Amino acid sequence: MKQKKIPMRRCTGCGEMKEKRELIRVVKAPDVKNDLGEVIKSGEISLDLSGKKPGRGAYVCKNTSCFEKARKGRRFERSLSCKIPDEIYEQMRRELEAAAQEG
Description:
single chain; alpha+beta; Hypothetical Cytosolic Protein, Chain: A; 3-stranded antiparallel sheet; 31% helix; globular
């Protein structure tokens, strides 16, 4: 029987390759555009605990140290090609801590 391939992703914090299910995805939703193709609203940035949301993604380990390392090095901003406000970082950190306590 053929073994199923396990998808691997790189953590933006520590840079280690890990299984996709061991990491949490940070996603930037697609931009909202009008009929002329002009951007009306920039896509929001959030944690994707299910891994199914549409948009550009970056992965981080399920611990706050990797998250803080990625935040300090502005690695999420580089991966998602946009500026991320501090309020979004704080909201993502709270969600990450809540998810770590559950699992």
